[in-house]
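Ticket opened by: R.M.
Priority: normal
Category: complex prediction / small molecule

The reporter submitted a protein together with heme C and asked that the result be attached to this ticket for the collaborator who will pick it up next week. Submitted input follows.
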Amino acid sequence: MRLLLLFFTVVLGADESFITPQEYAAQLYHNPRGIGCHLCHGEHGEGKVIAHYIDKGEKKAFEGPPIRALDFRRFDAALNRRNTGMPKYFLTAPERKALYRYLHPETVKDAHAEK
Ligand code: HEC
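Result attached by the on-call engineer:
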């Protein structure tokens, strides 16, 4: 039994330390200590209609805008301010960078070399 516990500790512990930066970024995008970004901006930041509503007899859509083609400055700035219809997150600079990287995998040359 003790051996089995040791086995799980080693395997699970090892598993966690071998997560790639891309895997980490994907997890953060889906669970950024708050509502997942994908729920409003789509799985890959392509944008998403969240709800339809009627305003003064007119059908309107509440949408999360596409965020995959923004430059890093604009992306980062948006995560540091309050946006209408978007929760305020308290992300660190490395976390914001990881999220940006998740939406721009082409900027990651060697996922294993990067920290
Ligand atoms: C509840 C829905 C919702 C969630 C969840 C959400 N957003 Fe947003 N986001 C919005 C809306 C709506 C806007 C448009 C705000 C505006 O126009 O002022 C927006 C705007 C943005 C912008 C600015 C877009 C631009 O064109 O400048 C960025 C970047 C962004 N969100 C990133 C994120 C990231 C990253 C996450 C996850 C950490 C996230 N959002 C989670 C709804 C959401």
